[in-house]
Amino acid sequence: xxxxxxxxxIQDIMRQDSGVDGDAQRISQIVWLLFLKVYDAKExxxxxxxxxxxxxxxxxxxxxxxxxxxxxxxxxxxxxxxxFVNNQLFPTLxxxxxxxxxxxxxxxxxxxxEDAYNYMKNGTLLRQVINVLNEVDFTEYEERHSFNxxxxxxxxxxxSAGNAGEFYTPRPVTEFLIEMLNPQIGESIADFxxxxxxxxxxxxxxxxxxxxxxxxxxxxxxxxxxxxKKPLPYLLAMTNxxxxxxxxxxxxxxxxxxxxxxxxxxxxRFSVIAMNPPYGAVESDSIKINFPVEMQTSETADLFMALxxxxxxxxxxxxxxxxxxxxxxxDSAKTAIKKRLLEECxxxxxxxxxxxxxxxxxxxxxxLLFFDKTGPTQEIWYFEHPLPNGYARYSKTRPLRKxxxxxxxxxxxxxxxxxxxxxxxxxxxxxxxxxxxxxxxxTVNSEEENKSALELVQEIKQSQTKVVNLLxxxxxxxx
Length: 479
What we know:
By secondary structure, the protein is of the alpha/beta class. The chain is built from 19 helices and 9 strands. The protein has 3 domains: 3-139, N6 adenine-specific DNA methyltransferase, N-terminal domain (Ferritin, Up-down Bundle); 154-433, Rossmann fold (3-Layer(aba) Sandwich), CATH 3.40.50.150; 447-478. It has helices spanning 3-14, 22-49, 63-66, 78-94, 104-113, 123-133, 141-156, 171-181, 198-207, 214-222, 231-243, 285-288, 300-311, 324-328, 332-344, 406-412, 426-431, 446-449, 453-478; strands at 189-191, 224-228, 251-253, 270-275, 312-323, 346-352, 366-372, 379-384, 421-425. α1 packs antiparallel against α6 (123-133), α2 (22-49) runs parallel beside α11 and α4 crosses α6 (123-133).
């Protein structure tokens, strides 16, 4: 059975259960089950190589001892299965005793289940889901790795799952951004709003061809760091990392913005930072006071940009996804953050993405900002990502593909201005009060670009008036 077919079968079963409402709950339900099955497979390997291995999960609650159906009529199902899951499994895993001496690969079980929830109300359907999952043998390396790509399908479903779409960055974006940052074995890599772990797993995949020894693989895993605030993406990220053979994921369930920036020391800084911070969210006063007064704002994305400046090592590199509003925003905090960014770091490249890259979650236009802590910015290169022929915008049915970044890759190391690329001096940015919203003079009429806000508002009003007049004329003819 293909794994794609397996996922569809599971989703079809769950749709029959009255307790599972919508894609987000369906995904959450699949993933806690998947986590336990994958974790049990990993424990089999740890037990094989370590004679003294002792599971943190009580014996009767390990997947192998309650989830396997031997077809002898003894497997838990129906009300009995529901009572076991709701009254024994979840309460016990949520209350596991963990302290600073607990092996990280064991402590993650409690971390994952602290905010997990069993949505299914039909124990017979739950048994059917478990039986389908058991058709995959995650102790087999090839089968586990073939599941990675299908796990991506589960994550993509988040884009249709209401606000949960904010936690997923399309794989072409994560892979391109990581490739341009070019992380090396031995460098620390961080994502302070890691969502489902896409940037971190892209980093793992990118560095695979650098691995020469078993120690190299351990070094990569040891140097990955993530933080995720919300329970669903945290669960997804942990499972994602384990599927990528990271036995002890260094991913924290918490808020990156909750610590005062003055408390960060050198050991808290990273060589490579890759992230897509949430934007449009609002932070409380208790979070804002963790930043200097001039940088205090309620806009989450802006605070993450400020955080990056405090957690980037000297000579470190950053790739970050940000909306247009960060480029043109002129409130005092945003301006202060951009000023400090340009004075402390070399913002060398801004890739302007078209609308629809994050569709259907949002149609907001976004940008990829690349900078490093090697000195102040002297000039900024812009590259406007071209839409494929025949596309007006990207969409759910016409998504961005990895191959479409080849045009940026071909230009990256041999930069020349053209119909897609242009550069702006730091003097011009300063003159415009740190506005970064510049367009290509080859393709934009300079007179249009320099229109005042008042002129633009007047033009919009004139257009609206024309539309209203046309509608009134049409209404008269229909009467």
